[in-house]
Protein 1
Amino acid sequence: MGSSIMDSLFQRSLEDLIKGIRLNLLTEPTFISKSTDDIRREIKSTDLHTKSVALQKLTYLSALYGLDMSWAAFHVVELMSSSAFAHKKIAYLAAAHSFHAATDVSLLTTHQFRKDLNSANPFEVSLALHCLSIIATPQLARELTPEIFTLLSSSKPSIGKKAVAVILRVFSEYPDAARVCFKRLVENLESSDPHTLSAAMGVFCELAVKDPKSYLPLAPEFYRILVDSRNNWVLIKVVKIFGKLAPLEPRLAMRVVEPICEHMRKTGAKSLMFECVRTVVTSLAEYEPAVKLAVVKIRELLVDDDPNLKYLWLQALTVVAPKHLWAVLENKEVVIKSLSDADPNIKLESLRILMVTVSESNVAEISRVLVNYAIKSDPEFCNEILGSILSACSRNVYEIIEDFDWYVSLLGEMSRIPHCQKGEEIEHQLIDIGMRVKDARLQLVRVGRDLLIDPALLGNPFLHRILSAAAWVSGEYVEFSKNPFELMEALLQPRISLLPPSVRAVYVQSAFKVLIFCLHSYLFYRETIACSPSSPDNFVTESKCPGSDSAIVAADCQQDEVFNPRASNQFFEDASAEDVEDITVTHAQIPNSASLGKDGFTHESIGNLLNLIEMALGPVSGSREVEIQERARNVLGFIELIKQELPGLVKKEGNFEREDLKFPKIIELMHDAFSKELGPVSANAQERVPIPDGLILRENLGDLEMICGNDQLPTSSSFSFGIPHYREKVGLPQSKGESSEASTESTSLLAEHRKLHGLYYLPSEKNDISTDYPPANDPKLQDNLNDHAKDLVKLTEQSLLQKKKPNHAKPRPVVVKLDEGDEAPIAAKKLELKEDLLSGAVRDVLLGNEDVSTSQSNLTDKSSSKRRGKEKLNADQPSGPKEVLGDVGNPNIGNSSSRRSKHHGHGKERRHRSPRKKDKEREENGQKDKQKSSHRHNRHKSRQRADGPNNVVTQTPVIPDFLL
Amino acid sequence: MIRAVIVMNTQGKPRLTKFYDYMPPEKQQELIRRVFGVLCSRAENVSNFVEADSVFGPDTRLVYKHYATLYFVFIFDSSENELAMLDLIQVLVETLDKCFKNVCELDIVFNYSKLHTILDEIIFGGQVLETSSAEVMKAVEEISRLETASNTITLVPKSISGWRS
């Protein structure tokens, strides 16, 4: 008890607290927690002064030391009601700092706010407005709208401007306030007080940035300010607003371009000039003279030593660049020089400009310059450069790349830059190009080889991803390799133990692919020598192969194989006799090995190869990493199998020929499995899968989990199609529960399963191939396109094979492109759906505004002169035209009696305004109704709200009238 | 609009923070730390703008000025002009200088609430309302007078006013 008296007598002030913190630097946390305890006690004091000091200290600690003060919210409210200005000020500051939407006691502040907003002391009003501008909630905004409405026309400029500024928060919290306050706000655009005007412009700028379309009707007011105002702050805002409005209305753009240029020429303020330049290059880029002037200004200032100006002008140049390349070319030297500026901002900005200018013709040159810069730069900027090259070149499926051999080599070169940390992206692109661009594979394999055989690269962890891609590419496209044996040695070199397991697994798998390729080539070669040219019917197409260049033939084969998209599935699933035949027919066409075999594949080299693999993978087969272990064991097991099938391989050469005339089926099958083309898969491929009849995807799968549990399946596994099928295959009784999947209840589940897979992949692939690049050497794709999806499911490989066409040489390689256009519209739709409540309400009022003008111009042809008269009238009685609106645009007042009565309440509070107010209320109500029932009726609304473009069109007649 | 104003010293200790959108105190502290991380890595004589998207969300920029031991930092969005913001920092600092006669960090440390008064006269709810330091000074002086007056007046009736509500 005694201590509390002592405390209140000797309470630490904020200054004491600050001094204490400074004295107790080392034990700061303890000191602060002790002070907090003091505050907790002091703040409960009935003495308001003690309370206020405690609250002040608490706010200080919260703002600068992150202390929680939500617990003190009620004390804040208490102190707000103090009559002493000093207490009030502390309380309002604390509220602004700590109140938020979830602070329930903020409801209790409504009354206090109202009282202070009506206070005779302008500083009290100002405090309340300040606090509101930060913490207003929808309820507060709704309740206090009448007070703010009154303050909007306050005679004291210091209050008026704050009332204008607080509108922004009020509108965003309670959009309907726009129906009451908006006209007053517009009136403030004509205010004689520069501060109020400035505040109003600030508010309109914020509003217009969010939803420019709604403010088009105010263009004449803005135009007047643009021409008349001499205040840079105001001009900056108005130029910004026109930057938003101009793109919506070409005639408006035409009108404002000259005044904006005028400001650009005359102003001495660089901020205003920059704003004009930015607006011209972003929104008025069609006006050649204006852009020219802007670029001249940019150029004048680009040479400035001030890094801020240089940075901003470069930024403006980035905006100009896409439409006016000449602007960059004129300033090319400065831009290139800026790449080595000391300022990271400037470096980055000049890099951006360069990347904007990249095109088919100069991509090689620019990339060369940039890569040279990257080598010299600090790691961060180096990766920034590499990242932008990678993203510019891969943009829109490598749109600007003509020469993929060059690009693939560049990727290889970039990988070797010491600071390169873009492994992931390069990895992705190497594989992606491999899958999409057939003609680049030869070069890919070359680049991959160079990376793989360099043992120094293995030590750099940033390169591991790239090496993984190189290994994958080398294995997948091994038929392009000049020397598979060398490749195998690289893949199995001892230092690969430095790689992470996931990459090593890729290495092992690639080694497997190389091995299969070598064996197949070798045996095929032997066979072609041993057999007479008239081979068995399996090898019908063989005759066409010898003599062709190996690379072309290989490419040819690759294409042909695309005919059998299902072949790999079949291989794994269940190869029926028919399928096997298909496979052999296809595989007879892998003849390039013959040409290779002539130089490389000898009995001895194959033997060495097998030994090498066994030596290298033997120890790995006990690896702890399952991926590596499993793959290594696969390879070793396969070698065992081969040795049994072809004992001649490991024996002396002499007895080989007699023994091994037959081509071991296992090698054919494995080779077949690996030589199937892997293609890119569209991100939304799954969406295109037609949902089978009777399958209800949205059904609650709660019971499924139970079933899975019974099956001992891991519940975490995703619900793929596989689970139900698996169950039904096993024939568990529970499968009855899934009546939804009626179609799969048939007995031939296996056939269903395959059919499903067919459905799953074929139609999507068909759609995925874009028609932008006419698939000249992929004629079968077009054939596919012409087929019905239904037929495709059952389409046999033979029928496809018959459609094979000869290969054509082409300038730019075909890039397999997925139809990604589908994704953009989805995103756009979402954006539209997510419409701002605020802009919706504001637009309602402004569309009402515009209703008048249209109706007026409909009434008489001399509308413009009449309008001017009206406008003059506005100055005296600003809501004049709106009263007209109240009558004209308000056909269903009667529907909203409840709301109207509520607003009458507000009307009474300001008796002197009641006649006008009533009209406004009617109008408001009408508009509220309109908003509510916009989808039901009301012609005005439905016409204007129907959609954006129409809206603009309907508004167009209005603006020139205003402007002229 | 202006999203936040931060004054901190070159050791990263905040001296004044004002967020014009509510943010929990811990979050504020985290942002201040991240801002400091960005600022202290920048050399002298480089541009004063930093793209702040990664710290404050999309469409935000940061402008700062370095005076003696203090950083003055404004965070704003595309509705504001970059150079105007730079000027505004200048206005703020000039006003402080007039207010405290050769302002130094200690003035700012010990005049926390006065600082808020000054800032609130210049920026209101994220909007720039006053750019003349003379006008700001006038208002601030009047507010200070009012504060001291109310404090002396309330010495007597404060207990009564405490019961009132």
Protein 2
Amino acid sequence: MEQNPRPKTILETCGEEIIRIVTPVSICMLLVVILVSVLNGGSSFDDGLSFATMATMAYSESSSNSIWDKLKGALLNSLVFVAVVTVATFLLVLLFYLNCTKFLKYYMGFSSLLVLGFMGGEIALFLIKVWSFPIDCFTFAVALYNFTVVGVMAVFMSKMAIFVTQAYLVVIGMLVAYWFTLLPEWTTWGLLVAMSLYDLAAVLLPGGPLRLLVELAMARDEDIPALVYEARPVISDAGLGDGVVRRRVWREGRGDLDEDQRLRSDIVSDSSLRTYGESGSERNIVDAEEGMALGEDSELAAPLIQHINIRMNSLDNAVSGENLALEGIGLGSSGAIKLGLGDFIFYSVLVGRAAMYDFMTVYACYLAVIAGLGITLMLLAFYRKALPALPFSVLLGVLFYLLTRLLLETFVVQCSINLLMF
Amino acid sequence: MDDDSRAALSNLHPVAGAGNLLPTTDEASSSTGRSVRIEWPTIDGPLGLSHEESLTYARRFFKLGFLFLPFLWAVSCFYFWPVLRHPHSHQSHPRLRRYLVGSAIGFLLFTTVLSSWALTFVVGGERLFGHVWGELVMYNVAEKYGLAGWI
């Protein structure tokens, strides 16, 4: 007697996948908005950071400059920033080409240590000061130490609880995004636009570093060690007609799937073989639960799209390494959607900056970013290759921010003042 | 073991020689209401670890937790929750379970000690500690050492 599971509708499979990527993005943005509104006290100051960081190396904005000066300065800063990021990405490609994966992994762990430990600690201190929270130094030290060490383990070890890993990635994204919102205003906006254009170029142009990286990874059938958020894959019920059992696959070593490797493979109801890639380069050897041959249908549902870890070293003494896994969105070799941490960060920076003006801009920018993300996901389903996730969302977001700030706000305020609407 | 659960599982292919692969979907088990057999030791289910690996990881978490890391013990208990939750299942791992119980006890003890100290500090305040309170509280310490000025 067979149980007939209700066939999954497209809303459940497709919608579930989209929700699993939109939710953490939204949570990250929400956290950054909360941080910004709590810590910046509602006054949007243009001065931003008072010391030189990499992002403000070329030009330090001050509110007394004219608009033209600010524009030029922002442009200069963004160019410098993009140049540094490009160099860093090429360095990453080189290291990956020379098989220094271990080194990259250690560096990833080290920079998440810095982000979680130092930046997390700083922001916690800010919060404690603002709220006058009477915590003593020992408890604080123990809590921070615990938080940091477990976070580094979650990022480093690929076999931690998925929820914990995802939560820590979101937290890392939030902390770095908050740091970016401390930059001067024009510089931030310039940076966002410049980074989305760079993203577009780096992923799609044939000579782009990220495209090179993805092709290298695909050629070698390897995972790039990177800070990448991988959504939990949607598992549909076992197909009835196949007679094939659902199992899991972990890739062992760098080999392809062959039968004598110890594998468990997961076969979705449409009987295309999907493998679950790993977001780290640690390989797990899975015991052979069954040795069922999976010769047929061994198409990998999507090519191995990986995401990149961009190391950025800001020169200030607080943070000496930040990982921005940029560029994009792609499909893990399972069909689970992977979104780079850099996308989380820049979306949150956009929304955080909008929050520094008013909440109206926050709503508008949030909708714009989610719409851009939806467009990107649709394109991803179409093209099935690595796509830059920044351009649509950021450009839409900037557009909506300008429109809201310049046009919508006056409209709404005037209507409210005259008791017409709202 | 049960006809109901057997019937419910019949849509899954039987596999020769797979001793511990007794596919128990969650729907099946909850619908039959029997005691769940632990198919997967981790909370991630099929995406998590296998039984052998779980032992290694649980042991590592347990040992590392002694470095003042109660949070790691908590994460370990969270991760291996199915094993902790169903002690008398078909595939119970006594050794794995021992590490988990140790982690859980360690976490509870450490948390009790830490929170009692923290609560004493907060509630007692100046009356209990005198001027030392001002020297121990975090925001003053941060001011004194300029810790919050880096960012």
